[in-house]
């Protein structure tokens, strides 16, 4: 039987499916303390059991994004707060090259709030 978290990634259409699969493995490779969990019906990445970020697809823009739990503490021009109080998101254009360096910089800064 397929786990709900695996089914989440399998059911997405391309090109979002490939982008999310890359982001899934990339986030987990950033730090040995990052783990993947299924919380609130979405893939959540936790640092030492504390919610760090999650992956989702934006309903309006139809683009995958990384939701950063402590995003309100980050000041990066590409992060969107929208109507969220605490979290900010980084939209990923799945039809373009994934901006790995930008993702690494943002997530590295976000990790400092957990260490």
Any overview of this molecule?
The protein is α+β, with helices and mostly antiparallel strands. It has three helices and five strands. A five-stranded antiparallel β-sheet has the order 1-2-3-4-5. The longest helix is centred in the first third of the chain and has 14 residues, at 16-29. It starts with a helix and ends with a helix.
Task: Provide the descriptors you would attach to this structure in a database record.
single chain, alpha+beta, 3 helices, 5 strands
List the topology elements.
Blueprint: H1 4-10, H2 16-29, E1 34-39, E2 42-47, E3 50-57, E4 64-68, E5 88-91, H3 100-111
Structural class by secondary-structure content: alpha+beta
User: How do the helices and strands follow one another from N- to C-terminus?
Assistant: HHEEEEEH
Annotation field: number of helices: 3
Give the tally of β-strands.
Answer: 5
Q: Mean pLDDT, as a whole number? A: 96
Main sheet summary: 5 strands, antiparallel
Q: Termini separation (Å)?
A: 36 Å
Rg: 13 Å
In what order do the strands lie side by side in the largest sheet?
1-2-3-4-5
Helix content: 25-40%
Content of β-strand = 25-35%
Task: Name the overall outline.
Answer: globular
Low-confidence stretches: none
């Amino acid at each position: 039987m397929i786990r709900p978290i695996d089914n989440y990634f399998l059911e997405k259409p391309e090109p979002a499916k490939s982008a999310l699969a890359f982001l899934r493995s990339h986030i987990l490779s950033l730090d040995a303390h990052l783990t993947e969990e299924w919380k609130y019906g979405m893939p959540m990445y936790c640092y030492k059991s504390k919610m760090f970020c999650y992956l989702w697809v934006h309903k309006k823009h139809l683009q995958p994004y990384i939701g950063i739990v402590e995003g309100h503490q980050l000041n990066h021009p590409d992060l969107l707060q929208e109507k969220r109080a605490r979290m900010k998101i980084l939209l990923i254009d799945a039809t373009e090259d994934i901006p790995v360096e930008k993702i690494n910089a943002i997530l590295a800064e976000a990790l400092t709030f957990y260490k």
